[in-house]
Amino acid sequence: MKLYPLQFEPILKERIWGGTKLKTYLNKPITSDITGESWEIATVENDISIIANGTLKGKSLNELINEFPVSVLGTKVYAQFGKQFPLLFKYLDAREDLSIQVHPNDELAKKRHNSFGKTEMWYVIQADSDARLIVGFKEKSSPEEFIENLNNKTLLSILDTKKVKQGDVFILNTGTIHAIGAGIIIAEIQQTSDITYRVYDFDRKEANGNTRELHVNLALEALNYEKIEAQRFYSKTENTSNEIINCNYFTTNFIPLDGATEIHKNEKSFTVYMCVEGSFQLTIDGKNYTYQKGNTVLIPAALTDFQLSGKASILEIYIS
């Protein structure tokens, strides 16, 4: 089987806080006014990505990995994770504030849920004026202070709020209390996990009149009460892979493409490109593939040499 750059059918998720920007900004085929997430590449149970292009169209990512594990995942990724795809890629549209939440680390997630933890990063694609994120505590806190403020509905007073703009990046290590604010579109890269402990949801009700479930007791042990700095600053040298994040779970680079650049990879890891602005062409083995803003493409590890050309802002993600 000759592998090639793979795109997938978006897995669209309605959310109480979702809107319509995934269609208007990122051209996703949403059918409701409360679509909050487009899962671009996923192997979470019951949400397995289906290939949308080429000769493998209609096959699931898990089926492909099962058949060609090393060629798709890479030698290092396969040695570390077996036939599991270790990352999840999403676009999010927050028409309203998301709940304030936290994700457990690998150890806690394994013990409680037999799952990976959920380290994630955010790249801000679009932000309305005065749009904000909540990331961590203003100062070092404690379980006692946290519970007191939660009970008094003053939790926001001890949380760190960041005004954001297009291109801002944040790393959310497990244990970091956080929330995406209204008016923001985000590209999210995370470990393959769907475990979230919701601690405060602004007392809002769903369509059925009920409030959403909270997980305060589970969150208490998962929270990191230290003051952290989650924002990352990075270079933007044209036609170059500028490193933004290099953590235990993934490496993310920013490529401001204006012209063309040659890419040379080893076979240790797959590579994913998320086009967050503009459009570009990928040329491999004499064949051209074209991508627009909002497209996500998986390059199997066996494909090591290709060219990117066009005018675009691209996130490049792999496991190093």
From TrEMBL:
<feature type="domain" description="Phosphomannose isomerase type I catalytic">
    <location>
        <begin position="8"/>
        <end position="114"/>
    </location>
</feature>
<dbReference type="InterPro" id="IPR011051">
    <property type="entry name" value="RmlC_Cupin_sf"/>
</dbReference>
<dbReference type="InterPro" id="IPR049071">
    <property type="entry name" value="MPI_cupin_dom"/>
</dbReference>
<dbReference type="InterPro" id="IPR051804">
    <property type="entry name" value="Carb_Metab_Reg_Kinase/Isom"/>
</dbReference>
<keyword id="KW-0862">Zinc</keyword>
<keyword id="KW-0479">Metal-binding</keyword>
<dbReference type="InterPro" id="IPR046457">
    <property type="entry name" value="PMI_typeI_cat"/>
</dbReference>
<protein>
    <recommendedName>
        <fullName>Phosphohexomutase</fullName>
    </recommendedName>
</protein>
<keyword id="KW-0413">Isomerase</keyword>
<dbReference type="Pfam" id="PF20511">
    <property type="entry name" value="PMI_typeI_cat"/>
</dbReference>
<feature type="domain" description="Mannose-6-phosphate isomerase cupin">
    <location>
        <begin position="245"/>
        <end position="318"/>
    </location>
</feature>
<dbReference type="Pfam" id="PF21621">
    <property type="entry name" value="MPI_cupin_dom"/>
</dbReference>
<dbReference type="InterPro" id="IPR014710">
    <property type="entry name" value="RmlC-like_jellyroll"/>
</dbReference>
<dbReference type="InterPro" id="IPR014628">
    <property type="entry name" value="Man6P_isomerase_Firm_short"/>
</dbReference>
<dbReference type="GO" id="GO:0016853">
    <property type="term" value="F:isomerase activity"/>
</dbReference>
